[in-house]
Structures are given as C-alpha cells and as structure tokens.
Write a structure and sequence with these properties.
Layout: E1 2-7, H1 13-21, E2 26-32, H2 36-46, E3 49-50, H3 54-59, E4 63-66, H4 73-82, E5 86-89, H5 97-110, E6 114-116, H6 124-135, E7 141-149, H7 154-158, H8 173-177, H9 179-189, E8 192-200, E9 211-218, E10 223-229, E11 239-244, E12 247-252, E13 255-261, H10 263-266, H11 304-319, H12 327-345, E14 351-352
Parallel strand pairs: 1-2, 1-4, 2-3, 4-5, 5-6, 7-10
Antiparallel strand pairs: 7-11, 8-9, 8-14, 9-10, 11-12, 12-13
Helix pairs in contact: 1-11, 4-5, 5-12, 6-9, 9-12
Length: 354
C-alpha cells in the first residue's frame, strides 16, 4: 500500500484526494498546509491525519502530492525527494527551468519516481490524436493549433496573494490555465522548435498576462498557433486542431468534433478532393477513429483523468518503472511557455527552444 500525503490544501487538493480514494494500492494518509485550519479541514473531510509539521508529514507518506503555489513546486519537491519520497507535482513542474531541472535531477539521484500532472494525456481521444499524428496516419503534419480562451474575474486573482504574480504563479493564462494545452499540442506535434509571441495584461489588475497570441514552429517543420486568455468573457471551449495532408482532427471541450482522415480522397486528382466541396463543413467520422469513444467516455472527464494518471504512478512505483509522464517530459511545456515570455519581452522576436 503506497501512502500518499498532500501538501497544500488550496483549490486543487480535493481533486487529488478524491482520485486517490478510488485507486487500488493507494492510501491517502496525511495533509499538511502552512494554514493549520485548512489542513485540519481537509483531513477531517477525507479521514486522513493532519500533520503538525513537515517532518511529521514526511513520516506519514511514501509519496508526496504537491499542491502549493507553482513557484514553490521544485523547492518542496526536492525536499521530498531527498527524504526518499516519490513526488507528484501539480502543473507546472515549476516556474523556473533551472529549479525544475534541479527537481528532476534530485528525483533521479534519490531513485524516486517523479511526475507532473498532465491529466489530458490520459484521455483516449488525445492519445488517439497523438498516435495518428506521429504514425503518419494524418500524412505530413501541416499545422497544430491550441486555443485556451477562458475567463477569470478579478476576484479570482484576489482570492490568493500568489495568483497573478511572476514569483509564485510564474505567469498568467499560459503558465497557469493554458499549460495543459501547450503540453498537449507540443506532445501531439512532436515538439516545438521556436515561438514568436505577443502577450498583454488587458483586463485584470495583475502582474502577468491575461491574453497571449503565439506563432509556433514545430520540430517537424509544421507551424501553428497558440492562443490563451483569462479575459475572454464568458469563456470559450478549449480546442485543439491538427491538420495533415491526409486529413484534420478537431477536439473541442474534450470531445472530438472533426475526425476526417482519407488519404485516397485527399489525393484523387479532383480540385477539392473526393466528395468535398470548395467550402466543406467537416463532420465527425468516429468510425475512422480506431478507438471506442462516446460522449460519455470516462477518460475525458475532470477528476477521472487525475485518477488515471495517479493509478499509473502507483503502478510505476510497484513495477519500478518510469511513470507514463516523467519529470524530463514535464520540462518541455515549461520550456515553451518561458520561450513565449522571452519572445514577448523582445517585441515578438523568434526564440528557439533547445
């Protein structure tokens, strides 16, 4: 039985706690927070121990789930790893590439497992799209776009001192809300080569951006767009679009909206492709998708995805293998977001990602 302790009892802790309750081989054992009242409330709700100190907390856990402000992720993760504890970090892995890299190295040195939450990678539709893109099923990849245009009121940023700050939030609509979609599109497309960006603080009294527009060049030569916002009232459905020479896939609000891939129709010699008008309205052809997806697919639902990732993590510890998403993989979306910020600071200059 792998004992999990959760450090940080803010907004996301309950998602992890509920997910852990349903995992065979996992036990939620303890909570710790700098605010004793919050850790006491969480402990009472979930039937775990309220640790009175960091040392007591570590003694109650084999694995630590880090749900503190983003700028503290690596610091606490390193301390946990050096104490011999496996580490699960809420996204992003940290707001600094240097400290995030130190965390990855600390986990390897201590021979403990490390993963960062990127729960969408465990959804069947996202995995199917990634497989289609990387297997050549979509043909030569032409474009990959990610849109994450949400809304947050000023009250959201006022709810905690760390929100909307460079030091502890590390950024705004891209580093916090949008990093999942940055991660998915870079993973699906096979990595980002360079970015050119503009960011704005358009509608909030915060240090960081609430609007971002990015031109992306992928390592395979494809191009794309990333858009992020927390200023788009009332908030739009998040969307991924991937286009290749054999077809297109669109996933919106965790549901496949378009999956039209047909290499023969795309290359039949007619002006617009077989059975396609000049301005087509693509429809979902789920029979073209080599997976069983319905509107009720559990892997697309919030909370269930966390449970899938945490289940993989428990099994990784049991099997002594790497988690599906390693610490090294967690660095890639962070590199992209930091490159976007560097480009924006330099009037949209192209920034290469090493």
């Amino acid at each position: 039985m792998l004992r999990f302790g959760i450090v940080g009892c803010g907004a996301i802790h309950s998602t992890h706690a509920q997910a852990l309750e349903g995992i065979e081989g996992a036990k939620l054992s303890a909570f710790f927070d700098i605010d004793p009242g919050r850790s006491a409330a969480a402990s009472e709700r979930f039937g775990a121990t309220c640790a009175r100190s960091w040392e007591e907390f570590l003694g109650l856990a084999d694995a630590v789930v880090i749900c503190v402000p983003s700028g503290l992720h690596a610091e606490i993760g390193i301390a946990a790893a050096q104490a011999g504890k496996h580490v699960v970090v809420e996204k992003p892995i940290d707001v600094s590439l240097a400290t995030a890299t130190q965390l990855v190295k600390a986990a390897r040195t201590a021979k403990v497992k490390l993963t960062t939450i990127s729960q969408h990678r465990f959804a069947k539709d996202i995995r199917a799209l990634r497989d289609a893109a990387q297997s050549g099923e979509l043909g030569t990849l032409i474009q990959g776009d990610a849109y994450n245009k949400w809304f947050r009121a000023q009250a959201y940023y006022n709810s905690a001192d760390w929100r909307g700050t460079w030091k502890l939030d590390g950024g705004g609509c891209l580093m916090n809300q949008g990093i999942h979609y940055v991660d998915m599109i870079q993973w699906i497309m096979g990595g980002v080569k360079s970015v050119q960006a503009q960011i704005r603080t358009a509608a909030h009294d915060i240090e960081v951006e609430d609007t971002a527009n990015v031109l992306v060049e992928y390592r395979n030569g494809a191009v794309g767009v990333i858009q992020g916002s927390t200023a788009t009232f009332p908030g739009m459905a998040e969307r991924l679009e991937v286009h290749g020479t054999f077809g297109s896939v669109v996933i919106e609000a965790d549901r496949i909206k378009v999956w039209r891939v047909d290499s023969e129709a795309a290359n039949d010699g007619s002006p617009y492709g077989a059975g396609v008008t000049q301005q087509p309205t693509p429809k979902v052809h789920l029979h073209d998708v080599n997976i069983n997806l319905t509107s009720e697919d559990a892997t697309t639902k919030w909370g269930n995805q966390h449970q899938l990732q945490l289940t993989d993590f428990v099994q990784a510890v049991a099997d002594n293998r790497d988690p599906y998403l390693t610490g090294e993989m967690s660095l890639e979306p962070l590199k992209v977001v930091l490159a976007i910020y560097e480009s924006a600071r330099n009037d949209g200059k192209k920034v290469e990602i090493l």
